[in-house]
Design brief:
Blueprint: E1 2-6, H1 15-28, E2 32-41, H2 43-54, E3 62-66, E4 72-80, H3 81-91, H4 95-110, H5 118-138
Parallel strand pairs: 1-2, 2-4
Antiparallel strand pairs: 3-4
Helix pairs in contact: 1-5, 3-4, 4-5
Length: 139
């Protein structure tokens, strides 16, 4: 089950479409959907989590806590809407496109993809692009 929670004034346009797409992403990776909670927040909220749980004193767009057991993926994915807006401007893409990238990023981590090294990061970007393309097919 995919849940959306809001700690800021942002609200997704179509939770049903996004949830359906993310479910399709999970299936495409041959995984089972457990409980996945998205929490949309601002920079300050996510910065506190980054400090408290990861000991990182930086701003970030997404932090995921993975509770996956076996083939069933579950977890909490925190997204800073402010960072997504800024990153969209920096990367010269639409807010919606950048939002899809961070939405799927956490799911891909739960599926076993990493992004720490250059090779891992390249594979993660390729997978993000592949899964974003699924959104357009699903609609």
């Amino acid at each position: 089950m995919i849940n959306f929670n809001y700690e800021t004034d942002f609200i997704l346009d179509s939770e049903e479409n996004i949830a359906s797409w993310l479910s399709a992403v999970i299936i495409s990776e041959k995984k089972k959907e457990g409980e996945i909670n998205y929490i949309f927040c601002d920079d300050e909220y996510l910065h506190k989590i980054n400090l408290e749980y990861l000991n990182h004193d930086t701003l970030t767009d997404v932090i995921s806590f993975d509770y996956t057991m076996g083939n069933e993926i579950s977890g909490d994915i925190f997204i800073s809407v402010e960072r997504v807006k800024d990153n969209a401007a920096d990367f010269k893409v639409s807010f919606d496109e950048e939002l899809k990238r961070v939405l799927v990023h956490g799911i891909l981590h739960y599926c076993g993809y990493k992004d720490k090294g250059e090779v891992e990061e390249l594979l993660m970007r390729t997978k993000e692009d592949e899964k974003i393309a699924l959104f357009h097919v699903e609609q």
